[in-house]
Amino acid sequence: MSYVRDLDVSANLVSAALGFNQELILVTTTADPLSSYAGADVSPGWASFPHSAAPHPYGADVRILADQTEQRIRVGELPISHPSFQTLPDGGLLAVGARASWKDGDAFHNAVLIDAAGDIGSTFCLGDGIAHTQVDSLGRIWVGYFDEGVFGNFGWGGPGPEPLGSSGLVCWSLDGRKLWSFEAPEGVGPIDDCYALNVTDHEAWACYYSDFPIVRVGDGWRIKAWAGGPSGAHAIAVTDGAVALVGGYRGLHDRLVLCVLGTDSSVASTSTWRLQLPGDQDLPLGTLVLARRQTVTAVVGGAWYRLDVADLSD
Q1: Phi, psi for residue 221 in degrees, rounded to 5
Q2: Which end of the chain lies in a sparser environment, N or C, as judged by fewer CB atoms within 10 Å?
Q3: Closest CA relative to residue 267, chosen from 220, 211, 308, 229
């Protein structure tokens, strides 16, 4: 991986994500984590039950970074816990909390629209159990759900309605309307847990538990699937005729598997690499690794590193 720039993250890091132009979106706050963005109830046995709403609304600083430029947006009084952020085509932001309880006939609104000045606008619910949120250049919201969002928890699926994320992958409008939801094509199973998601201008790519197929959602919501992806990958990058799946289960946090896609419904070949920092340094355990379009990004010790997976397939 090659060095991009220093990040100077001195406050509490709320979240980091990549936008549709591969900009790095860093969100920080000076608020106490447990009383703001990381709210949770912890039992005596150390089981953690995350909050949907922030215990106390909090302010956040959003930095939108390209290679040489930086834009800052100050957001006040965010009401959601465990958020991720995306840039919008109009210059605003979307903030989405990972959890959304259903209680007493009401769904918690975990999606918050923010204008370019940092003012909070409309809110709506995108469902519980959100693992990934990516907005494309058309302003569509693609959401991948983990198992609780698929099968139900926090009131969804009983006594409340079917979970909004029961299909595992849903595309929403910016006013909270469901545009499309995933249906597994013949030959692959349904999504139990969406491990990896990558949204480009007009396509979405995903890899999911339990069989870890690679799926592409193209124009007109057409789905193509390839069996044979590696298990446990948590990020996916795409290039012509191939995808790179990053990460895995224990001991495989730095694994990158380049999968050449066959013309049928299977992976034609694979090659395995290790992500390393300049100077052949190992990627530290616990490194935040993200992917969007054809790039893999790592945030390590206040620095931004990047790899273009097209370079691996040359």
Answers
A1: 60, 25
A2: C
A3: 229
Cα distances from 240 to residues 45, 49, 206, in angstroms, run: 49, 42, 16
Phi, psi of 54 (to 5 degrees): -65, 135
Q: Is the pLDDT of residue 314 over 70?
A: no
The sign of the CA dihedral 233, 23, 10, 112 is: negative
Q: Are 227 and 188 in contact (CB under 8 A)?
A: yes
User: Do 312 and 244 touch, CB atoms closer than 8 A?
Assistant: yes
Rg of the chain over Cα atoms, rounded to whole angstroms, equals 19
List pLDDT tens digits, range 141-182: 999 999 999 999 999 999 999 999 999 999 999 999 999 999
Indicate if the pLDDT at residue 117 is higher than 70: yes
Contacts of 260 (CB under 8 A, 6+ apart): 241, 242, 267, 268, 269, 270, 313
Q: Within 10 Å of residue 269's Cβ, how many Cβ atoms?
A: 11
Dist. CA 126–CA 62, nearest whole Å: 22
Neighbouring C-alpha atoms within 13 Å toward the C-beta of 151: 8
pLDDT at 121 over 80: yes
Query: How many residues comprise the chain?
Result: 314
Rounded to two decimals, the pTM is 0.97
In 54-69, which positions are buried (b, 16+ CB within 10 angstroms) versus exposed (e)?
bbeebebbbbbbeeee
